[in-house]
Amino acid sequence: MASRETARPRPRVVIIGAGFAGLSAARELARHDVDIVLIDKQNHHLFQPLLYQVATAGLSPADIAQPIRSIVRKQPRTQVLLDSVEGIDKAARSIRLASGAMLDYDALLIATGARHSYFGAGWADRAPGIKTIDDAISVRRTILLALERAETSRQEHLAERVEYLTFVVVGGGPTGVEMAGAIAELTRAAAEAEFPHITRHCVRIILVQSEQRLLPSFPASLGGAAQRALEALGVQVRLGCRVTAIDDDGVIIGDQRIAAITVIWAAGVSASPAATWLDATADRAGRVIVGADLTVPGHPDIFVCGDTAAVIDASGKSVPGIAPAAKQMGRHAARTAVARLLGKQSPGAFRYQGFGNLATIGRKYAVVDFGWLRLSGLLAWLLWSAAHIYFLIGFRNRLIVCANWAWNYVTFDRGARLITGIDRRV
Questions:
Q1: C-alpha 284, offset from chain centre
Q2: Would 49 be classed as within a structural domain?
Q3: d(CA 355, CA 334)
Q4: How many angstroms separate the CA atoms of 208 and 388, rounded?
């Protein structure tokens, strides 16, 4: 497998990462006479935009994930490897894997996504973000255990009870806004229905945003609408504030300490170590700075896509780190690679086609920015729901998520309230 001495009947394209960009590239490549190797350290593709609903017991993990092998089972020239990358030899066109294997390539596409970026040492253990299913399950466990502990706390342990019922979300972008709204819905509905000693007035949810408004990538009017919707759900929105410390006792916002068991990070991300593997130039977030065709400068056989890439497209716009952009980059990189390997016409420079931004707040309110159309409220929520159902992979997942949302909407019931792997800290 590692040797380049044995001639191969077809060029080999290696894709690292089975996220939106990687799978879109694999599907495009499957239409051409090339061999595909798809590498990921997980055996499933994950629909990350809905991870916060797993973390707040609205959906189960299997509702938003699907095994990679089942996704590509109708692509006979696609090989799936459960492995991770330790290094890339650009000169030899080979990849060193954690399993010890060496894998050569004719074209390489890297789409390994992003991870959390923290502003303080040791914050990661105390303020988890949600990038994986394990992250979401851990956050769900912390939230549900906090409710259980608060329910059983005696009146003389009032300070402890307040700590359990205080939830802090750091970051006012789409992830933070959606998480804060979902926690509010969970604690308002489930708590009042099933926890006799907890009411919505006992619960304190704080959303901290360092900028002067929520949703900075949206128009100011929609950021204001999102803030009003969150405040109507009982969320305390703190703008222009910075978290200066996170420890076992809670957080410090500015110079004010807030005791809280549950702190959730949604304030920043950094790219995977792809820039280190490639010894390539990266931006401040660690994203590889690529050319107009999504290749690493000086290496026309290496493409970088999705959250791993810092891209200025043909129109001069910075490409956002969202799922539609990643899918478009994956397809474009695949077409360019095929053109160079098989002597076909190149698609030219990448141009991102933006469809708009969406964010939801609770069970029936969202904000939508299509540029030419800006909406908030129930209609925006219906559009948000339709878009997310559309982008889910697999008919089964679409059907289940749609049914779950309908059930939750009618009954306020969140059926995925399972506590597994008890966290001793809580």
A1: 19
A2: no
A3: 21
A4: 26
Helix 133-152 crosses helix 174-194 at what angle (to 10 degrees)? Answer: 40
Residue owning tokens 């409710």: 147
Dump pLDDT digits (tens) for 39-51.
999 999 999 999 9
More confident residue, 258 or 116: 258
Return d(Cα 356, Cα 171) in angstroms, integer.
21
HEC assignment per residue over 34-96: CEEEEEECCCEEECHHHHHHHHCCCCCHHHCEEEHHHHCCCCCCEEEEECCEEEEECCCCEEE
Show the domain range for 311: 12-41+83-116+270-342
Domain assignment present for residue 89? The answer is yes
Same-domain status, 37 and 154: no
* 97 and 147 assigned to the same domain: no
pTM of the model: 0.90
Q: What secondary structure letter does DSSP report for 234?
A: T
Query: Do the domain assignments include residue 350?
Result: no
Name the nearest CA neighbour of 359 among 385, 332, 396, 395: 385
Buried-exposed string 40-69: b where 16+ CB fall within 10 A, e elsewhere:
bebebbbbbbbbbbbbbbbbbbebbbbbbe
Per the structure block, which two tokens stand in for 424?
Answer: 């001793």
Q: Report d(CA 329, CA 332) in Å as an integer.
A: 5
CATH number at residue 337: 3.50.50.60
- 218 DSSP assignment: S
Q: Both 383 and 252 in a single domain?
A: yes
Ramachandran sector of residue 91 (left: φ over 0; alpha: ψ -120 to 50; beta: rest) = alpha
CA angle centred on 76, ends 73 and 78, rounded to 5° = 80
Are 219 and 280 within one domain? Answer: no
- Burial class from Cβ neighbours inside 10 Å (0-12, 13-18, 19+) for residue 296 reads buried
Q: Which two tokens stand for residue 280?
A: 């390539």
Within this chain, do residues 167 and 276 fall inside the same structural domain, yes or no? no
**285 plus 335 within the same structural domain:** yes
Enumerate the active-site residues. 178
Asked, for residue 249, whether it belongs to a domain, the answer is yes
Place of tokens 């306020």: 412
Q: Say whether both 105 and 231 belong to one domain.
A: no
**pLDDT, tens digit, for every residue of 94-138?**
999 999 999 999 999 999 998 888 877 688 889 999 999 999 999
- At residue 372, φ and ψ (nearest 5 deg) are -80, -15
